[in-house]
Amino acid sequence: MDPVNTGKALSGLVGEIRAGALDKEDVAVFVHTGGLPIIFAYHVPLKEL
């Protein structure tokens, strides 16, 4: 997950799940559409993971 767009979108989905907007029976589809190029801008923090 890149921390710019896709990461924020996934965070929003997780927030909705935690808020109870989705039940265990609901189906959620998350489409990862990219983000790879921006990941190189975060090489220093990611190196520490």
Write a structural description.
By secondary structure, the chain is mainly α. The protein has one domain. 45% of the residues lie in helices and 0% in strands. The protein has 3 helices and no strands. It has helices at 6-18, 36-39, 43-47. The two termini are 13 Å apart. The mean pLDDT is 85.
How would you summarize the topology of this molecule?
Elements: H1 6-18, H2 36-39, H3 43-47
Could you name the key traits of this structure?
49 residues; elongated; mainly alpha
Mean pLDDT: 85
Task: Give the overall shape.
Answer: elongated
What does the radius of gyration come to? Answer: 14 Å
As for the number of domains, it is 1
Give unreliable regions as ranges: none
Specify the structural class. Answer: mainly alpha
Outline the biggest β-sheet. none
Q: What percentage of amino acids are in beta strands?
A: under 5%
Q: Please trace the helix and strand order, writing H or E for each element.
A: HHH
Q: What is the percent of helical residues?
A: 40-55%
Give the helix tally: 3
The N- to C-terminal Cα distance equals 13 Å
Number of strands: 0
Short structural description:
It contains 3 helices and no strands. The protein is mainly α.
